Amino acid sequence: MDYNGITIEWLGHAGFKIVKEKIVYIDPFQIPETSEKADIIFITHAHYDHCSIEDIKKIIKSSTIIVCGSDVQSKLGKVGPTIKSLITEPEKNETVYEINFSVVPAYNMDKQFHPKDNCWMGYIIKINCTKIYHSGDTDIIPEMKSIQTDIALLPVGGTYTMNAIQAVTAATIINPKLAIPMHYGSIVGTKEDAEKFVQECKEKGLNAKILVRS
Fold first, then answer.
1. Average of per-residue pLDDT across 185-214
2. Which among 106, 153, 146 has a CA at the least distance from the CA of 125?
3. Which stretches of 30-163 are DSSP H helices?
4. Which residues contact 188 (CB under 8 A, 6 or more apart)?
């Protein structure tokens, strides 16, 4: 998908590739061996389907910077001895390769898979004048009221995160120009969950779109 000259690809599950001069990945998981090398890799948290060492190895090069939390850093030694990383945490504002981003919390409100105390993350990445919010694994949380973004990438699979209907509520709170469902079609969640999310968003006057997996 092209958005304001930015290429955004859904890689399956919660993984995305964003290209505008720099090549940015978020939570790559089960991607092809021939995937393009990364300038920046954003990792939201340490669970294997978000911090996949196997997949990071496929796209890392000598200049790649991995943005992650301290719990992820402890796993990166399995990638190689010379990994470049930026360790961050919620409420931080950072810049890597002239790409500005803000770190926001991601956590569960009514389940224990992603405790708030773990300080796991979502990211608001600004490329040119476009902001892209990857929520990470989260429920509807109070911090969403202050998020301003053009594109919101929201989980719809349920069980470990919001389900489709809850994600619609999150989209209503955030009110992006475009909402895109994620976190389905692999471990939990189905295409029908994504379709329900898009339909319910449109009924509420929100622009939403399913991306075909790259």
1. 96
2. 153
3. 53-59, 70-73
4. 157, 158, 159, 160
Answering whether pTM is above 0.70, one says yes
Neighbours of 163 (CB within 10 A): 19
Mean pLDDT score of the chain: 96
If we measure between CA atoms, which residue out of 127, 51, 67, 137 comes closest to residue 103?
67
- Mean pLDDT throughout 183-197? 95
Rounded to 5°, the CA angle 15-88-151 comes to 40
End-to-end CA distance of the chain: 10
**Cα separation values, 210 from 42, 62, 84, 156, 213, Å:** 22, 34, 33, 11, 9
- Report which residue type is found at 99: I
Q: Phi, psi at residue 136, to the nearest 5°?
A: 70, -170
> Domains plus CATH for the chain?
2-203 (3.60.15.10)
Q: What's the average model confidence in pLDDT over 32-54? A: 97
Tokens of 53: 């060492």
